[in-house]
């Protein structure tokens, strides 16, 4: 991680990868300040997302999904780390690949399947596109297709909550392609000027559909843009959930007390096509192979084992339990009802 702009590096004393030195005496890792339970909770969220998406891929190819499937394979650490350090008052605007934001905020897997299967008791009650879901009671805005459009919404939402005396922080997620939109510029500039505590989380997964970084922006690094807005820019490894969690925890603690906007650029890789309709033949296979070694689930597992926080067998058992949970959630959602045509007009217009 490095920092640009006029701000000091956060978490300067934290480790830069490698094995963790775990102290079983107090249950806390002295370098990452994370307990075994907290580390396993991070792994669980990432596994839930991965296993749900694997199921959604199969359902998509069976023609059983109402809409497309856009996976976050390889990017699971970002939503996991950011939600792990947030508070109940905080606001989130996830993008299409951010299932870990929903899961991290507590959306049950059954509700995610309900949404993708268009069930009447899912988050949008079977009314909106499968990927356009959110739950305001969890502080999660629904995604809309227009890239960047939710960034000003989070900014305004955080301002509104703060005026009500609620110490909210915002998390606004955007892809590398989405940083080229006018809405991105307007939201970041506005939040910078009015010192709104929003972390603009750029998920640089190297491609915007088939457009590589080299054809997306001319600056050397996306984090360099922070200087132009007069805010702190932080570049982080988006595939190392422990390191990212520590980075975001330090940022959140600072900006909750002393509000300001931050640009957090997480380097990662989109490991599948743009959507499941896309074979991503334009992505060099060697690039994917190299990033496969950096799979966030693999990285965390290796760290936990190296630190003797958990054994391979224990981690395999967690994965097996997650798979069983997903299977059950899917079966339950399958049995849930489709919306009745008689309710077609409900929830469409405000009732005066
Ligand atoms: C304002 C706007 N322009 C174009 C599109 C069409 N579009 C949908 S996804 C996408 C690529 C997005 O790339 P990126 O922001 O890098 O996110 P990623 O898909 O890589 O996660 C584009 C161009 C859109 N939805 N909204």
Oligomer: single chain
Order of helices and strands: EHHEHHHEHEEEHEHEHHH
For the biggest β-sheet, the strand order reads: 1-7-8-4-3-2
Query: So how many helices?
Result: 11
Bound molecules: thiamine diphosphate
Share of helical residues = 25-40%
Shape: globular
Give the number of domains: 1
- Write down how many β-strands occur, each being a DSSP E stretch of 2 or more residues: 8
What is the typical, i.e. mean, pLDDT?
91
The helix-and-strand class reads alpha/beta
In CATH, the topology is named: Rossmann fold
Q: What is the CATH homology-level superfamily?
A: Thiamin diphosphate (ThDP)-binding fold, Pyr/PP domains
Q: Catalogue the unreliable spans.
A: 5-26
The appropriate CATH architecture is 3-Layer(aba) Sandwich
Q: Report the top-level CATH class.
A: Alpha Beta
User: What does the largest sheet look like?
Assistant: 6 strands, mixed
- Calculate the terminal CA-CA distance, rounded to whole Å: 52 Å
Strand content: 5-15%
How much is the radius of gyration in Å? 20 Å
Question: How would you sum up this structure, described in words?
Answer:
The chain has 352 residues and is an alpha/beta fold. It has a single domain (2-7, 30-330), classed as Thiamin diphosphate (ThDP)-binding fold, Pyr/PP domains (Rossmann fold), CATH 3.40.50. 39% of the residues lie in helices and 10% in strands. It contains 11 helices and 8 strands. It has helices at residues 36-61, 76-84, 99-104, 109-116, 150-163, 182-193, 225-229, 241-257, 285-292, 296-306, 312-334, and strands at 2-4, 91-93, 170-175, 198-204, 207-208, 211-212, 232-237, 262-267. The strands form 2 sheets. Strands 1-7-8-4-3-2 form a 6-stranded mixed sheet, sandwiched between helices. It has a two-stranded antiparallel ribbon with strand order 5-6. It is globular, with a radius of gyration of 20 Å. Residues 5-26 have low confidence and may be disordered. The protein binds thiamine diphosphate. Thiamine diphosphate binds at residues 95, 97, 145-147, 175-178, 181, 205, 207-209, 270, 274.
């Amino acid at each position: 991680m490095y920092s640009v702009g006029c701000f000091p590096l956060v978490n300067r004393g934290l480790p830069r990868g490698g094995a963790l030195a775990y102290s079983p005496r107090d249950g806390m890792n002295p370098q990452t300040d994370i307990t075994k339970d907290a580390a396993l909770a991070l792994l669980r969220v990432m596994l839930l997302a991965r296993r749900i998406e694997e199921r959604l891929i199969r359902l998509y190819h069976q023609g059983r999904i109402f809409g497309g499937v856009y996976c976050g394979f390889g990017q699971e650490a970002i939503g996991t780390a950011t939600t792990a350090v947030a508070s109940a008052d905080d606001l989130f605007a996830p993008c299409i690949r951010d299932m870990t934001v929903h899961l991290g905020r507590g959306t049950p897997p059954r509700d995610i399947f309900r949404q993708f299967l268009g069930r009447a008791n899912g988050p949008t009650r079977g009314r909106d596109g499968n990927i356009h879901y959110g739950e305001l009671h969890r502080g999660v805005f629904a995604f809309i297709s227009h890239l960047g459009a939710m960034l000003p919404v989070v900014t305004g939402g955080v301002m509104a909550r703060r005026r009500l005396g609620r110490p909210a922080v915002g998390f606004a997620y955007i892809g590398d392609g989405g940083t080229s939109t006018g809405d991105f510029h307007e939201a970041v500039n506005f939040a910078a000027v009015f010192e709104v505590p929003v972390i603009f989380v750029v998920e640089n997964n190297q491609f915007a559909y088939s457009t590589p970084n080299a054809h997306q922006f001319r600056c050397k690094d996306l984090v360099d843009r922070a200087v132009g807005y007069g805010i702190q820019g932080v570049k982080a490894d988006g595939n190392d959930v422990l390191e990212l969690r520590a980075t975001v925890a330090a940022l959140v603690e600072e900006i909750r007390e002393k509000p300001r906007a931050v640009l957090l650029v997480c380097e990662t890789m989109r490991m599948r096509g743009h959507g499941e309709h896309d074979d991503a033949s334009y992505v060099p296979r060697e690039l994917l192979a190299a990033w496969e070694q950096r799979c966030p689930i693999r990285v965390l597992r290796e760290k936990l084992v190296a630190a003797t926080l958990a054994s391979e067998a224990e981690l395999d058992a967690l994965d097996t339990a997650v798979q069983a949970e997903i299977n059950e959630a899917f079966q339950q959602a399958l049995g849930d009802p489709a919306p009745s045509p008689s309710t077609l007009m409900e929830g469409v217009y405000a009732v005066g």
